[in-house]
Write a structure and sequence with these properties.
The complex is a heterodimer of chains A (114) and B (113).
Chain A lengths: L3 E4 L2 E4 L5 E7 L5 E7 L5 E7 L6 E2 L6 E5 L5 E5 L8 E8 L9 E2 L3 E5 L1
Parallel strand pairs in A: 2-11
Antiparallel strand pairs in A: 1-3, 3-8, 4-5, 4-9, 5-6, 7-8, 9-10, 9-11
Chain B lengths: L2 E4 L3 E5 L4 E3 L1 E4 L6 E6 L5 E7 L5 E3 L5 E5 L4 E6 L8 E8 L6 E3 L3 E6 L1
Parallel strand pairs in B: 2-12
Antiparallel strand pairs in B: 1-4, 3-9, 5-6, 5-10, 7-8, 8-9, 10-11, 10-12
Classes of the chains: A mainly beta (114), B mainly beta (113).
C-alpha cells in the first residue's frame, strides 16, 4: 500500500515549456487535490476532483489544467511554464471529500522554472 | 470567510522542554481544525484533528491540541520535545463553502540538543 505517489520528484523547466505532473493513489479514495506550497504561504489549492469525472478550480488555478484520468490518477498540466510557477506541488486524496476527513499527501514535486 | 493565523513563524526549543505552537482561526461557524506536520523534503502528515467532539484532542507522537471557541484558538502542545520533532507545522481549517482546506503559513520548529 503505497498511499499517494507523485512523479517526478524534481523537474527543471525553461519558460514556455510544458509538462505534466502525475499523481496516483491506491486507497480507493473518491476525492483528489493539487496544491502548491510557497514559502510563508502554506499550501494553496490549485484544482480538485470531488469524484471521478469531475474537476473544479481552487484558489490559484490560472496557468494550470487537470485531468482525472480514472479513480486512481489525477494529473496536473502546465501548458506554458512561467517562473512564477516555481514551487513545490503536492497531490492529496481523501475518501469522500467531507469536511472532517483527513487528506493524505504525496511526497511532492519540486519544480524550478527558469 | 474562514482563515487561519499561525502566530509564530519559527519556534526554537531545547530537547526535553515543552513545545507550544499557536494557531488562531476566524470562522462564522464551528469549524473542523487540523494540525499537519511536514518533515524536510517530505509530504504532509496528519498530527491530529478536531471535529466538534472533545475539545482536547490527542494526536500522534505525544502532541495534543485544545479547541477554545471563546478564544478562537487551536494551539498545539507537546510536554517534551524530541529531536525528531524538528519540522514545519501547519494549522488548517475547513472552509464552510466547499469543505476545502485553508492552510496557515506554517511554523518551523527547531530543536536544540
Amino acid at each position: 500500500n503505497a498511499g499517494v505517489t507523485q512523479t517526478p520528484k524534481f523537474q527543471v523547466l525553461k519558460t514556455g515549456q510544458s509538462m505534466t505532473l502525475q499523481c496516483a493513489q491506491d486507497m480507493n479514495h473518491n476525492s483528489m487535490y493539487w496544491y502548491r506550497q510557497d514559502p510563508g504561504m502554506g499550501l494553496r489549492l490549485i484544482y480538485y476532483s470531488a469524484s471521478e469525472g469531475t474537476t473544479d478550480k481552487g484558489e490559484v488555478p490560472n496557468g494550470y489544467n487537470v485531468s482525472r484520468l480514472n479513480k486512481r490518477e489525477f494529473s496536473l498540466r502546465l501548458e506554458s511554464a512561467a517562473p512564477s510557477q516555481t514551487s513545490v506541488y503536492f497531490c492529496a486524496s481523501s475518501e469522500m471529500g467531507l469536511r472532517q476527513e483527513t487528506q493524505y499527501f504525496g511526497p511532492g514535486t519540486r519544480l524550478l522554472v527558469l | 470567510a474562514q482563515s487561519v493565523t499561525q502566530l509564530d513563524s519559527h519556534v526554537s526549543v531545547s530537547e526535553g522542554t515543552p513545545v507550544l505552537l499557536r494557531c488562531n482561526y476566524s470562522s462564522s461557524y464551528s469549524p473542523s481544525l487540523f494540525w499537519y506536520v511536514q518533515h524536510p523534503n517530505k509530504g504532509l502528515q496528519l498530527l491530529l484533528k478536531y471535529t466538534s467532539a472533545a475539545t482536547l484532542v490527542k494526536g500522534i507522537n505525544g502532541f495534543e491540541a485544545e479547541f477554545k471557541k471563546s478564544e478562537t484558538s487551536f494551539h498545539l502542545t507537546k510536554p517534551s520535545a524530541h529531536m525528531s520533532d524538528a519540522a514545519e507545522y501547519f494549522c488548517v481549517v475547513t472552509r464552510l463553502s466547499d469543505y476545502k482546506l485553508s492552510f496557515g503559513a506554517g511554523t518551523t520548529v527547531t530543536v536544540r540538543a
